[in-house]
Design goal:
By secondary structure, this protein is mainly β. It has one domain (2-145): Porin (Beta Barrel), CATH 2.40.160.10. The chain is 0% helix and 70% strand. It has strands spanning 2-4, 11-18, 23-25, 32-34, 40-48, 52-66, 74-90, 93-106, 113-128, 131-145. A hairpin with a 6-residue loop joins strand 3 (23-25) and strand 4 (32-34). It starts with a strand and ends with a strand. The mean pLDDT is 88.
Length: 148
């Protein structure tokens, strides 16, 4: 189920709700069937004007994570993502940035939680209507809490 607001003076809000559709995750006895009405949900806000674009989004979902030996199990894990984006255009120059926070939290006693942050910067210079020089750079960090 999706909901999109009307344009509120360059601001658009969105919400999504999705069931798990009987997805089977994990290895017994740490298996789980995702069949709830709201196993995945997301919210976002987007601002878009002539020269400025900004967005903030949150998503909660699930995935499967493999635990290393000696455990050697696949376990269900909650996945949470928070993402912010900013872009602007000044004349022939376009600039952009994205920051994303990720958390994976396995449903297994003592399993490690993973937190990650990603950064992306981009720039583009329009040389002509058909030619734009572009550059991008990205970095990420990952923190693992606890040990399996």
């Amino acid at each position: 189920m999706n909901w999109v607001s009307p344009n509120l003076g360059n601001l658009v809000l969105k919400a999504q709700l999705a069931p798990g559709e009987q997805d089977e995750l994990g290895t017994p006895p740490y298996d789980e069937t995702k069949d709830g009405l709201a196993d995945i949900y997301a919210l976002s806000a987007t601002w878009n004007s002539d020269a400025l674009y900004a967005a903030l989004a949150y998503e909660h979902g699930y995935t499967e994570r493999a635990l290393p030996a000696p455990v050697s199990l696949n376990v269900p894990a909650d996945r949470d993502v928070l993402r912010g984006a900013l872009g602007m255009r000044v004349g022939n120059l376009s600039l952009g940035a994205i920051v994303e926070e990720l958390r994976l939290d396995p449903d297994y006693p003592g399993a490690s939680r993973l937190d990650g942050t990603s950064y992306l910067l981009s720039a583009g210079l329009a040389m002509s209507p058909r030619l734009t020089l572009k550059a991008q750079g990205a970095a990420s960090t990952v923190t693992i809490w606890g040990t399996p």
